[in-house]
Amino acid sequence: MLEEDCKIFLELVQKRDPVIVIDRDATSREIEAILKPWDHAGLYCIWNQALLPSIERKFIPESNHGPYYHVDSALPVIELSYPSPIPESWNGRSALTQGRIWAGFEQENRDFERWFNSVVRWIRKNFVKNPVPHLGGYIGPAAYDWYKTKGILLPVLRPPVTPQWLSWVEAQDQHRAVFSK
User: Fold this and answer.
1) 172 contact partners, CB below 8 Å, separation of at least 6
2) Among 77, 147, 87, 155, which Cα is nearest to 109's?
Protein backbone atom coordinates (compact mmCIF):
# COMPACT_ATOMS: atom_id res chain seq x y z
CA MET A 1 0.00 0.00 0.00
CA LEU A 2 1.02 3.53 -0.65
CA GLU A 3 -0.05 6.27 1.75
CA GLU A 4 -3.38 6.94 0.01
CA ASP A 5 -4.22 3.20 -0.10
CA CYS A 6 -3.60 2.84 3.63
CA LYS A 7 -5.62 5.96 4.38
CA ILE A 8 -8.64 4.76 2.37
CA PHE A 9 -8.43 1.29 3.93
CA LEU A 10 -8.22 2.52 7.53
CA GLU A 11 -10.84 5.23 7.08
CA LEU A 12 -13.29 2.61 5.82
CA VAL A 13 -12.53 0.27 8.73
CA GLN A 14 -12.95 3.14 11.20
CA LYS A 15 -16.16 4.35 9.56
CA ARG A 16 -17.81 0.93 9.91
CA ASP A 17 -16.76 0.09 13.46
CA PRO A 18 -15.39 1.76 16.62
CA VAL A 19 -11.79 1.05 15.62
CA ILE A 20 -8.57 2.48 16.99
CA VAL A 21 -5.16 1.89 15.46
CA ILE A 22 -2.39 1.36 18.02
CA ASP A 23 1.26 0.33 17.94
CA ARG A 24 1.61 -3.41 18.49
CA ASP A 25 4.85 -2.98 20.44
CA ALA A 26 5.87 -0.10 22.68
CA THR A 27 8.24 0.88 25.46
CA SER A 28 5.25 1.70 27.66
CA ARG A 29 2.10 -0.11 28.75
CA GLU A 30 0.06 2.99 27.80
CA ILE A 31 -2.34 2.55 24.89
CA GLU A 32 -2.44 5.55 22.56
CA ALA A 33 -4.33 5.88 19.28
CA ILE A 34 -2.20 6.47 16.20
CA LEU A 35 -4.18 9.18 14.44
CA LYS A 36 -2.53 8.99 11.00
CA PRO A 37 -0.82 5.60 10.70
CA TRP A 38 -0.61 6.03 6.93
CA ASP A 39 2.01 8.76 7.51
CA HIS A 40 4.71 6.37 8.72
CA ALA A 41 5.72 2.73 8.62
CA GLY A 42 4.82 0.57 11.56
CA LEU A 43 3.56 -2.65 13.02
CA TYR A 44 0.07 -1.78 14.21
CA CYS A 45 -2.99 -3.40 15.74
CA ILE A 46 -6.43 -2.55 14.41
CA TRP A 47 -8.50 -2.73 17.59
CA ASN A 48 -12.28 -3.00 17.26
CA GLN A 49 -13.60 -1.80 20.62
CA ALA A 50 -17.02 -3.35 19.97
CA LEU A 51 -15.34 -6.78 20.05
CA LEU A 52 -12.77 -6.05 22.76
CA PRO A 53 -13.77 -3.21 25.10
CA SER A 54 -10.32 -2.89 26.70
CA ILE A 55 -6.81 -3.89 25.74
CA GLU A 56 -3.50 -4.23 27.53
CA ARG A 57 0.02 -4.93 26.40
CA LYS A 58 2.00 -7.78 27.97
CA PHE A 59 5.42 -6.99 29.39
CA ILE A 60 8.25 -8.84 27.65
CA PRO A 61 11.21 -8.53 30.05
CA GLU A 62 13.87 -10.03 27.78
CA SER A 63 14.40 -9.86 24.04
CA ASN A 64 17.18 -9.08 21.55
CA HIS A 65 16.07 -5.43 21.74
CA GLY A 66 15.60 -5.20 25.49
CA PRO A 67 12.35 -5.11 27.48
CA TYR A 68 9.13 -3.90 25.84
CA TYR A 69 5.33 -4.21 25.90
CA HIS A 70 3.45 -6.26 23.30
CA VAL A 71 -0.19 -6.77 22.27
CA ASP A 72 -0.84 -10.50 22.52
CA SER A 73 -1.55 -12.05 19.12
CA ALA A 74 -4.22 -14.27 20.70
CA LEU A 75 -6.44 -11.21 21.25
CA PRO A 76 -9.15 -10.43 18.67
CA VAL A 77 -7.21 -7.66 16.90
CA ILE A 78 -5.98 -7.38 13.32
CA GLU A 79 -2.27 -6.89 12.93
CA LEU A 80 -1.28 -4.46 10.19
CA SER A 81 2.29 -4.55 8.98
CA TYR A 82 2.86 -1.35 7.00
CA PRO A 83 6.45 -1.21 5.75
CA SER A 84 6.46 2.29 4.25
CA PRO A 85 4.03 4.93 2.99
CA ILE A 86 6.39 5.77 0.13
CA PRO A 87 8.61 3.72 -2.16
CA GLU A 88 12.19 3.23 -1.02
CA SER A 89 15.33 2.53 -3.00
CA TRP A 90 16.45 -1.03 -3.72
CA ASN A 91 19.52 -1.32 -5.94
CA GLY A 92 18.90 2.21 -7.21
CA ARG A 93 15.26 1.45 -8.11
CA SER A 94 12.05 2.63 -6.50
CA ALA A 95 10.55 -0.32 -4.61
CA LEU A 96 7.73 -1.21 -2.23
CA THR A 97 8.09 -3.95 0.35
CA GLN A 98 5.10 -6.20 0.96
CA GLY A 99 3.03 -5.66 4.11
CA ARG A 100 0.15 -7.69 5.45
CA ILE A 101 -2.90 -7.89 7.63
CA TRP A 102 -3.01 -10.88 9.93
CA ALA A 103 -4.99 -12.21 12.86
CA GLY A 104 -4.57 -15.12 15.22
CA PHE A 105 -7.59 -17.30 15.79
CA GLU A 106 -6.31 -19.25 18.78
CA GLN A 107 -9.57 -18.65 20.65
CA GLU A 108 -12.92 -19.12 18.94
CA ASN A 109 -14.70 -15.81 18.47
CA ARG A 110 -17.37 -15.81 15.74
CA ASP A 111 -17.88 -12.03 15.87
CA PHE A 112 -14.17 -11.40 15.40
CA GLU A 113 -14.05 -13.95 12.58
CA ARG A 114 -16.96 -12.22 10.80
CA TRP A 115 -15.33 -8.79 11.22
CA PHE A 116 -11.94 -10.03 9.97
CA ASN A 117 -13.58 -11.72 6.97
CA SER A 118 -15.45 -8.52 6.10
CA VAL A 119 -12.13 -6.62 6.09
CA VAL A 120 -10.59 -9.28 3.85
CA ARG A 121 -13.58 -9.15 1.48
CA TRP A 122 -13.26 -5.36 1.23
CA ILE A 123 -9.56 -5.69 0.33
CA ARG A 124 -10.29 -8.33 -2.31
CA LYS A 125 -13.01 -6.16 -3.81
CA ASN A 126 -11.14 -2.84 -3.78
CA PHE A 127 -7.50 -3.82 -4.22
CA VAL A 128 -5.83 -5.63 -7.12
CA LYS A 129 -4.50 -9.18 -6.96
CA ASN A 130 -0.71 -8.91 -6.75
CA PRO A 131 0.63 -9.14 -10.33
CA VAL A 132 4.03 -10.48 -9.23
CA PRO A 133 4.24 -14.28 -9.24
CA HIS A 134 5.09 -15.91 -5.89
CA LEU A 135 4.27 -12.82 -3.80
CA GLY A 136 0.54 -13.38 -3.40
CA GLY A 137 -1.84 -11.02 -1.67
CA TYR A 138 -3.33 -7.79 -2.94
CA ILE A 139 -2.00 -4.37 -3.83
CA GLY A 140 -3.72 -1.03 -3.27
CA PRO A 141 -4.96 0.89 -6.34
CA ALA A 142 -2.41 3.74 -5.96
CA ALA A 143 0.42 1.24 -5.43
CA TYR A 144 -0.75 -0.70 -8.49
CA ASP A 145 -0.73 2.43 -10.66
CA TRP A 146 2.76 3.23 -9.36
CA TYR A 147 3.90 -0.35 -10.12
CA LYS A 148 2.53 -0.20 -13.68
CA THR A 149 4.61 2.87 -14.49
CA LYS A 150 7.95 2.29 -12.80
CA GLY A 151 8.04 0.51 -9.48
CA ILE A 152 9.16 -2.89 -8.33
CA LEU A 153 7.46 -5.00 -5.70
CA LEU A 154 9.56 -6.84 -3.13
CA PRO A 155 8.69 -9.52 -0.57
CA VAL A 156 8.20 -8.79 3.14
CA LEU A 157 11.92 -8.98 3.84
CA ARG A 158 14.11 -6.79 1.62
CA PRO A 159 16.17 -9.22 -0.43
CA PRO A 160 19.91 -8.90 -0.95
CA VAL A 161 21.10 -7.66 -4.34
CA THR A 162 22.06 -10.96 -5.94
CA PRO A 163 21.87 -12.26 -9.52
CA GLN A 164 18.76 -14.28 -8.58
CA TRP A 165 16.90 -11.26 -7.20
CA LEU A 166 18.03 -9.07 -10.09
CA SER A 167 16.57 -11.58 -12.55
CA TRP A 168 13.36 -11.67 -10.51
CA VAL A 169 13.10 -7.87 -10.83
CA GLU A 170 13.89 -8.12 -14.55
CA ALA A 171 10.93 -10.51 -14.89
CA GLN A 172 8.71 -7.82 -13.29
CA ASP A 173 9.97 -5.31 -15.85
CA GLN A 174 9.15 -7.73 -18.68
CA HIS A 175 5.70 -8.39 -17.22
CA ARG A 176 5.06 -4.65 -16.94
CA ALA A 177 6.13 -4.14 -20.56
CA VAL A 178 3.56 -6.72 -21.71
CA PHE A 179 0.56 -5.16 -19.99
CA SER A 180 1.55 -1.57 -20.77
CA LYS A 181 1.05 -2.17 -24.51
Assistant:
1) 132, 152, 153
2) 77
Distance CA 100, CA 150 (A): 22
Residue 116 CB contacts under 8 Å (≥ 6 apart), including other chains: 78, 103
Distances (CA, A) of 42 to 99, 105, 156: 10, 22, 13
Residue 152 CA to residue 158 CA, distance in Å, equals 12
* 12 confidence band (pLDDT: 50, 70, 90): very high
- CA atoms of 90 and 49, how far apart (whole Å): 39
Distance CA 3, CA 1 (A): 7
pLDDT in tens, 122-169: 999 999 999 887 889 999 999 999 999 888 999 999 999 999 999 989
pTM of the model: 0.91
How many independent structural domains does the chain possess? 1
